[in-house]
Amino acid sequence: MTGSALGRRFDVGLLLRIAVLLAAGSALAWAITRPGLYATTLLAGLATLAALAELWSFLRRTNIIVARFVESVSHGDFSQSFDAGPQGGGYDVLGASLNAAVIQLRDERSATQDENRFLAALIDDVPSPLLRIDADDRVQLLNKAARRLLGGAPTVRLADLAAHGVAFAADVTALRPGERRSTRLVIAGAPTAALLSMAEVRQPSGPVRIVAVQPIQHELDRAELAAQTDLVRVLTHEIMNSMTPVTSLSATAAQLIAAADTGRDPAIADARAAIETVARRAEGVMHFVRTYRQLTRPPELRRRRVALPEMFAELARLFASDWPALPLTVQVPNGLTIDADPDLIAQVLINLLRNAAEAASGHSDAPAVTLAATALKGGRVAIDVTDNGPGVPEDQRQDIFLPFFSTKAEGTGVGLSLARQIALAHDGALTCEVADGGGARFRLVI
């Protein structure tokens, strides 16, 4: 049936019911004015009420359908459609309009949900860790990077951030919208430089602060290492250029005067001793410079899966051969592996173990060294070399990784600098901290 036919049917039905109501009402009014027609009056009254009820029901059916439809939409149910049935009288037009509005709302809601899912996925994959802090100081780790960085301990309130460093928690608390500041947080037991920035978002429940935490220690180490490498390269180049002719000429002069020295002239003997001393010291300087030139060449990595129990067992045998009277405690979970260059990592650990043995044996009556490995969240591994020696003063814990810097009388300042180069080449870190029982703990994170 067409819409016009439905409209005519509704109009005819409505007029017929109005006509019946008017007729019943007129009959009731006529019967009331005639004495003695009680039965007629009663019948006319009942007919009037029935006609009125029928008219009310006729109009109310569509109103109920409209009310139920609007109620469904108000509860967010856009799957419903408006069906007034064969009412006509413009209800078909009303139904078409309502259905079109619902379809538009449904499409807009779907588009909004798609956009929200896209934004949620985008935030979750942002490489910078993001924190959400509401007006009640509740903290939410917004994305994967934040959960990897700060997921080691439960983080619900601002005070919980102290588990990652007291300075870090204080800086986040004091941070203001639009402000940027540097801080230090503790990652895998090692202090790490980070950059904080904050933005504020207004929501009906109150302002929400979004804090971005960007660890920058690795970039700072690389920049520092690059500057040191450039400095060493320039110095060694200039020193070698100046010392090469001195070394060559002094060696030649030493040979000539040695041939001319018959032992009868004390002056020639003194000159020979002086020239030979100069030649030895010139060669010593050249050896010193050649040693530091290795710092200017980045280590070439040959990565593979390395089983740490096997590597630690080999290191323990080497340690026992060099330090038979000094106990080495080895702690490593079975099956723990790293993706690294085994030769370079072994070189780093041998250097750290040697330093630890020297520090412990020269300080304690019961020297002890520990080599331990721990699996960290996110797939990384921490390798700790700990001793019960005097430790490293706080003001020297960064300097010991500088080229030329050494706390030993006969140290060259190459070992720890090269060890840090190897750590950075593995996208790792090498740090020095105070051990739990005193002494020093060097942590290599791979």
UniProtKB/TrEMBL annotation:
Record SMART domains: HATPase_c
Coiled-coil parts of chain: none
Cited Pfam families: HATPase_c (PF02518), PAS_8 (PF13188)
Transmembrane segments: 12-32, 38-59
Top enzyme category: transferase
Entry EC no(s): 2.7.13.3
Any one biological process term the GO annotation gives: phosphorelay signal transduction system
Domain PAS: 115-151
Reactions catalysed, as given in the entry: ATP + protein L-histidine = ADP + protein N-phospho-L-histidine
Keywords: ATP-binding, Kinase, Membrane, Nucleotide-binding, Transferase, Transmembrane, Transmembrane helix, Two-component regulatory system
Domain Histidine kinase: 234-446
GO molecular function, one term: protein histidine kinase activity
Name of the protein in question: histidine kinase
Organism: Glacieibacterium arshaanense
